[in-house]
Amino acid sequence: MNAQIERFTIDGPIGHIEVAVNRPAGVPIGISLVAHPHPLFGGTLDNKVTKTLASAMTQLGYIAIRSNFRGVGKTEGVHDAGIGEQDDLMHVIAWIREQTGLEKLPLVLAGFSFGTFVLSHVAKALSDVGTPARRLVFVGTAASHWNVAPVPPDTVIIHGEKDEIVPMQLVLDWARIQMLPVIVIPNSGHFFHGMLPLLRQIVVDRLALLNTN
């Protein structure tokens, strides 16, 4: 599969937001917004897990949009502990839905680490105004450091067994309250070194299965 990738900036609430757009080879079946890990620890839209998620989405036929958080790359502003970042992602979603032919396509939110925290609150905000995302995919959910909001029961949650940043037990504790299943990749750390092909295949297989229901 060959995907087309574009990179540019759009106007945001406090300045430019840098985005990268992966387009599938065929007619898109939906759109996805992919959120990267913590910007103060090197997280960018070029993070390898974030790019893997975008690649999985285009393989499934989604247009995948990644955006840099505030103060990263060409995105203006300064880090706002995930609060202003939520506003920015809501703005990116609004921009996506304004594009001709995309306004009625289903939306998938996919996040890694800090990105799961931001997207959990974005998902709640979308649901509160009656325009919910169709699916959520959370990888390395940041349950140990951030107040990750409750998510829908069909959320795809993937975690590394030996995650050194977010211990597996803390994610299970967060998921248990909501009766959410967690897919565990054995022997994997937080950044899924050597496990990215497996991670991608799990995302593809799980979303493909959910999309048939």
UniProtKB/TrEMBL annotation:
SUPFAM superfamilies: alpha/beta-Hydrolases (SSF53474). It comes from the Bacteria. Residues 17-122 form the Xaa-Pro dipeptidyl-peptidase-like domain. This is Xaa-Pro dipeptidyl-peptidase-like domain-containing protein. It comes from Candidatus Pandoraea novymonadis.
